[in-house]
Every structure is written in C-alpha cells, then in structure tokens.
Specification:
single chain, 181 residues, mainly alpha, 81% helix, flat
Length: 181
C-alpha cells in the first residue's frame, strides 16, 4: 500500500483535532467555532476527492446555516456555570471505550474499500457539470415539482405565521379589555 498524500494527512489531523476540541471544550462558543473549522476541513477533503459540489454544499449548509443557528441558540440560552450538569467519570470512561471500539470497527471495515478508491480515482465523478446534466436532463420534472412544492411550503408558512401573529394581538387586546372592566 502506498503512502497517503500529505494534504489528506494534514486535513485529517486538523479535522480530528477540531472534533476533539468540540467535545472537550468547556466554552460552547469555542466548541461551535471549532466545529466550523472541522466543517471547512471536511469540505477540503471533498475537494481532494474531486467532489466540488459536495464541498460547496457542505460549506453553505453546515458551516453557514447550521452553525449560525447553533450560535443563535447558544446566545439566546445564555448558558452559565449554574446550568452545567454534574458529570461523573464513568461516562467519560464509557464514551472512550465506545469511541475506541467504533474507530476499530470502522478502520477494519473501510480498509479494503479505501485502498480501492485510492487506486482508481475517477476524474468525472463529483463534478457539477455531470450533476447538472443528470439533474436537468433525466430528472427535470421531479426537480421542477420539488421546487414548486418548496415554494408552496414557504408561502404556507408565511401565511400561517402572519395569521398567528394577528390572532395573538386580538386575543391580547380582548384579555386587556376583560381585565380592565
């Protein structure tokens, strides 16, 4: 078996370090920032595998939208030391044993398939051009129907959201009138 490429090893090291920091950090904001770095390094792995579309989607969906959502939730919760639960060492030992077992099983399972992928890289797999040909050729009608379904769902969510806020205001006014009389 030949040696792995240096960029892959560096990115893997960064990903593993950031993932460990996410789990072990006491500060939740630092954990989220380390998770963002881990997502960027995973996207770089996708670029090394010639899957540019997956790299961009990973950055937009995970590093962009999901991490912003996590940060907003953390800021809104305002977690302090009093809210932190007390943890025993038994959980740490059990999680270390579980993680080690999972790593051993995954390493054994993917050893042969990893060698196969490394020996036979395909230049056309993962390119956006090929995805576009399939998406707008063979699957054009399902793609368009899915877009129409999403637009309908967004319009419905906006209408339901506006109706709920109007009902809430009218019920609040009715409660004020009932309390004042």
């Amino acid at each position: 078996m030949s040696a792995l490429p240096i960029p892959f090893l560096v990115l893997s090291f960064i990903t593993i370090l950031c993932a460990l920091y996410v789990v072990t950090s006491k500060n939740p904001v630092h954990s989220v920032l380390a998770l963002i770095v881990a997502f960027f390094s995973i996207s770089a792995h996708y670029v090394l595998l010639n899957a540019q579309f997956l790299a961009i989607v990973n950055l937009m969906v995970y590093a962009g939208a999901i991490m912003v959502l996590f940060l907003f939730v953390l800021m809104l919760l305002n977690l302090g030391k009093a809210a932190e639960p007390i943890k025993s060492n038994a959980w740490a030992l059990a999680s270390a044993i579980s993680a080690g077992s999972l790593l051993l099983i995954l390493t054994a399972a993917f050893q042969k398939s990893g060698e196969q992928v490394y020996r036979n890289p395909s230049e056309t797999v993962g390119l956006v051009k090929n995805l576009g040909k399939v998406l707008f050729g063979e699957y054009l009608i399902p793609f368009e129907l899915t877009g129409a379904l999403f637009i309908g769902a967004m319009v419905g969510a906006v209408l339901l959201g506006k109706r709920d806020s109007g009902d809430h205001e009218s019920s609040a006014l009715a409660e004020e009138k009932g309390a004042s009389s």
